[in-house]
């Protein structure tokens, strides 16, 4: 008689070999999102090359990068809160009360998100001088003044870009992946077009705002074809659930965002160039993670939320086991290959001009350890979507806090003997820890809810 574990894996492989309709939709969505993400990354790279060509390294560009980075950080941080909390509630409302009520819920929550973007943006403008003084300590007074002005000028970008994260989540809730993913190319395409005809820093600001507006318009047009909203003024009670979960999800997202900042700060304690070396290693891993973890999570999130809304716990458990098997078989060889061939990869991507062979050796050494995070990161991101679907906001916040503390502790231990490579190894260990905790928590939560419904 075969072992239970062997039987389970055999059944999972049968599902993969003969996919159901849902699995075909998931795979189709993943291929679509991953492909469009790859194209968007390529367009964004062309944009960066064009900006570098026309503006080089200048004080005005420094000011723009600071203002743009501030607004991007605000929009990305807020996106971890209300938009993330909206999708599970949207799926639940759609399952219980129909599409019209669900769309009204999503529309009302989008208005709340828009108001929060405007409020935070106005606060950033009011305190722009203080923010620039803290963030731009090396800037001269003229550059600080330009940066403060650009924080105001890029306020339309903050609102439009922040709203696109919410509307894209809404589209994914309806499993409309093409518009949500393809529209990401709007900003870099507009910037490339406008600075080609007039390469000036104020044109770069205008192009960024126009690109974000175009991105927003594309998503609004895509939604207009599908949403069913009646009596928008009638308040949806499930908005209270969204708002209750927004705070913990927002804080946990902020805590996780601080992890990379902590790594860069601690790398700054080491020898000269360590921060840059870590940054190059993160860029390589970031490309792979964007095409695997992020594409898969964007595709699977609405399916997870739908299954949770239906309270089909056996189906959710099967999906989790399928994910773990597929991720393990797909990403472990990829991580080992990247770790083994790290010098070749770094040499092909970066070794030219001022990036010499000694720099390749330093980055490759860090990349060997950073690559080990890939399987655990992918599993962690996907299971964190299930946690969000379960609306376990308190657990998300607790895990993010513990992970940050563990990251700081392991950084301090490993970097003593391994230098900046120790920080990369610490990151891999933290993602291993979080993936194990997430698997344990989710399976226990499913088991508990199965007992409650049986």
Notable characteristics:
0% strand, mainly alpha, globular, single chain, 2 domains, 454 residues
Structure description:
There is one protein chain. The protein has 454 residues and is an all-alpha fold. Residues 1-6 and 15-19 have low confidence and may be disordered. The chain is globular, with a radius of gyration of 23 Å. Helix 2 (21-55) packs parallel to helix 10 (186-197), helix 4 (82-97) runs antiparallel to helix 5 and helix 4 packs antiparallel against helix 12. It has helices spanning 4-17, 21-55, 59-79, 82-97, 99-126, 128-135, 141-153, 155-173, 177-182, 186-197, 201-224, 239-267, 274-310, 313-340, 342-350, 357-370, 374-389, 393-418, 420-453. The two termini are 29 Å apart. The longest helix is centred in the middle third of the chain and has 37 residues, at 274-310. It has two domains: 36-237, no CATH class; 244-454, no CATH class. The chain has 19 helices and no strands.
């Amino acid at each position: 008689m075969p072992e239970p574990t062997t039987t389970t894996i055999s059944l999972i492989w049968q599902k993969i070999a003969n996919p159901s309709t849902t699995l075909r939709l998931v795979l189709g969505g993943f291929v679509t999102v991953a492909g469009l993400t790859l194209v968007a990354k390529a367009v964004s790279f062309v944009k960066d090359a064009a900006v570098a060509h026309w503006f080089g390294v200048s004080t005005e560009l420094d000011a723009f990068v600071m203002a743009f980075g501030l607004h991007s950080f605000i929009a990305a941080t807020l996106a971890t809160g209300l938009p993330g909390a909206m999708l599970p509630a949207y799926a639940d409302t759609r399952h219980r009360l129909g599409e019209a009520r669900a769309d009204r819920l999503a529309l009302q929550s989008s208005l709340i998100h828009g108001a929060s973007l405007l409020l935070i943006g106005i606060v950033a403008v009011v305190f722009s001088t203080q923010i620039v003084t803290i963030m731009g300590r090396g800037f001269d007074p003229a550059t600080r003044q330009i940066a403060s002005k650009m924080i105001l000028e890029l306020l339309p970008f903050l609102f439009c870009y922040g709203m696109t994260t919410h509307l894209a989540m809404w589209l994914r809730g309806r499993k409309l992946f093409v518009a949500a993913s393809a529209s990401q190319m709007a900003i870099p395409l507009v910037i490339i077009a406008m600075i080609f005809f007039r390469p000036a820093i104020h044109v770069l600001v205008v192009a960024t705002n126009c690109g974000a507006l175009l991105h927003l318009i594309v998503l609004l047009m895509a939604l207009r074809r599908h949403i069913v909203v009646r009596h928008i003024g009638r308040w949806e009670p499930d908005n209270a659930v969204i708002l209750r979960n927004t705070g913990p999800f927002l804080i946990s997202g902020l805590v996780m965002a601080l992890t990379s900042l902590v790594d860069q700060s601690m790398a700054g304690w080491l020898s000269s160039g360590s921060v840059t070396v870590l940054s190059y290693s993160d860029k390589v891993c970031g490309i792979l993670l964007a095409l695997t973890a992020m594409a898969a999570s964007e595709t699977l999130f609405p399916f997870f939320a739908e299954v949770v809304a239906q309270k089909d716990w056996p189906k959710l458990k099967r999906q989790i086991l399928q994910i773990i098997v597929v991720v393990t078989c797909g990403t472990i060889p990829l991580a080992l290959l990247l770790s083994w061939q790290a010098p070749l990869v770094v040499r092909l991507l970066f070794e030219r001009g001022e990036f010499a062979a000694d720099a390749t050796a330093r980055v490759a050494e860090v990349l060997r350890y950073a690559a080990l995070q890939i399987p655990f990161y992918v599993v962690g991101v996907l299971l964190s979507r299930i946690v969000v679907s379960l609306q376990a906001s308190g657990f998300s916040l607790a895990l993010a806090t513990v992970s940050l503390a563990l990251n700081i502790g392991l950084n301090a231990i490993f970097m003593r003997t391994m230098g900046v490579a120790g920080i990369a190894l610490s990151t891999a260990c933290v993602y291993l820890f979080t993936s194990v905790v997430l698997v344990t928590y989710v399976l226990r939560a499913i088991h508990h809810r199965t007992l409650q419904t049986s």
